[in-house]
Amino acid sequence: MSSSKQPASTSFKAPDSSRLQLDEQGRLRHFLTTEGLSKDILTDIMDVAESFSSVGNQAVKKVPVLRGKTIVNLFFENSTRTRTTFDLAAKRLSADVINLNIATSATSKGESILDTIRNLEAMHADMFVVRHSASGAAHFIANNVEPHVSVINAGDGSHAHPTQAMLDMFTIRREKKEFSTLKVAIIGDILHSRVARSQIHALNTLGVKEVRVIAPKTLLPSDTDSLGVHVYSDLRTGLDDVDVIIMLRLQRERMGAALLPSEHEYFECFGLTEEKLAYAKPDVTVMHPGPINRGVEMDAAVADGPHSVILQQVTNGIAIRMAVMTLTLGQNKVAG
Amino acid sequence: MNILIENGRVIDPANECDAVLDVYIGDGKIQSIGDKPSGFVAELTIDASNKLVMPGFVDLNASLREPGYEHKATIESETKAAVAAGYTSICCLPDTKPVLDSPSVVQLILDRAESADYAKVLPLGALTVSLEGNTLSEMFALKRAGCVAVSQAPNNHINGQVLRRALQYATTHDLLVILKPEDTVIKDDGCVHDGSVCSKLGLLGIPVSAETIAIAQIIELTEETGARVHLTGISSARAVSLIARAQFNNVTITADVHAHQLHLTELDVGTFDANYHTSPPLRSTEDKDALIAGVAKGVFVVSSGHQPHDAEAKQAPFPSTEPGMSSLETVLPLMLELVDDGLLSLSQMVACLAYAPAQLLGLETGCLSAQAPADICIVDPNDTWQVNADNWLSRGMNTPYLGHQMKGKVTHTLVNGRLIVEK
Lengths: 336, 423
Prior knowledge:
A: Rossmann fold; 2 domains; four-stranded parallel sheet; about 15% strand; B: alpha/beta; TIM Barrel; eight-stranded mixed sheet; 11 helices
């Protein structure tokens, strides 16, 4: 039979994350997930962040590392905190920054993501910082950008939020110095949390002693064990002897979806109070990616207490994002 | 035209035949196998040495996209792909636009199939109006117009009450009902198997219970109403045992599995590869093995689950992509691989691709009996080919097998005794 008319050969085959994220020299090209990245790369990110951490204290809060580069913050999902820190990070690196809130822009008029990307590439963007409500969105964009464009995942659905995870790792390193002795407990909505998934991969790669997750069964993925964690349903047992507690944000809509009965009961079982904190190590560090629901995830006394490093996390977020932008875009010009 | 297919290995489970024999064709029908009919003069002789001669395959589940979605595929493009892949009859799902719920749409589809003149198209009428699960379709009129069965696939948006009545009504007109077992409430917005890959990728999972609860409901209603029901697109090990048990208890229920479910698992989704976004989802390795065992034991037949798509349908973040695979052209090599692996005999393969589907639709095809329509495919089981855009005939390029080497190639296909494919 003769061959019928066909569109040009199109391969949809997506390469695995590590191949997609690294260039031929094994350097970071995109930053999409912490999964599959080596300990060296994660450590490198933290070391570069360390070198940038003083920039915010200078009189002129700028270094010329990414001068002349154009960074587009492409937010398909609303965010204030994450976008602001990416914005600040890019500006401190002297890049030109464009903030596009797509949630209220082109795609709501029916333009496809690919068309949006093509248009921005035509304007010579060098980097896309992407947030999207669908898992896999950053991978999809990274698979479709031109070779010189880098993509940083600023959160895709329930999949990954690698810069948040790395700022948490950076904060832990600054607090505890050494990862190998640490027991870390992540508490809350693991099922829907891109932050938790990225943290779990990073913590395991950095070689902590144990990662625990503490959550009701409705907020755990079906195969949580495969993520490399120990699962606890009881907060007190789960907190026993831990060095670091990471609280996750609880979204209000979980109650409507019959995943939880009430905020009140959640706080009763999984909320962090000073009394429950006593089960952990005396020098335990308490973290939260923000924004906090006081009285749902944790008591105000804990959030503002001596163990909390929640505001340091925010500060560290800028240095980590500067580091990731520098490593992906300015390979040869790393400061410090 | 009188055609002689000589020296081929004839595999015809209907007549328990697996032997090198000559096949004599005349008047669009099989005249004889083995013995030359008196006075037979071949006008065309096909040398089938070292090849398999089998009844043309009968597919129970394919979306042909016409009318309404011609940007994805047409009846012409997909039936052309079908005959080249050894299929001579294709049941088309009612998910067209307008939905295949009226005699005029049935007629349009049959007209298009006739003018395309490749495979036979057997329309599956919609079980409910617009497939919305509220009002019964005019099943008698659909049957009279040429529908071979009625179906709610590719969705299962129907509540127990409407389904029960639809089964009763279909039975009134002696119509087979084809259902895709999927509890849409449990499925919710899930897009992959609820297992390790969805846990890792943060995708919403579809638990096995979304399938088994629907199957349990359908089995109960089938038994209660005495309907003839066929379940299409089974994906899990637990479903295999539910269906086997029902069949053991003489419930009039049959089922099929898509060929790719016998090869692929959730792990193939890798990192958000949308070509592996299928419905039902690719499940665990244990599920896949149980499905193969189910085919070998005769619990199921095999369908293509053919879902051709345009490129845009797969060009989005994984959960936003449309599910489905363009699969007609890979069914045969995938099944032959199971034969090579010793998991199925050739005879079992032909039974589940041709004979059993034809039987459950009440067709005369699917066998090589004398006076049956000469719907035949001839296959070189050892010829290898690479899947690529040049030899792919379906308009849907959404196959994960692009670039893969396939073993087993159709060399000839006859429909009603006419040679439609010769490669």
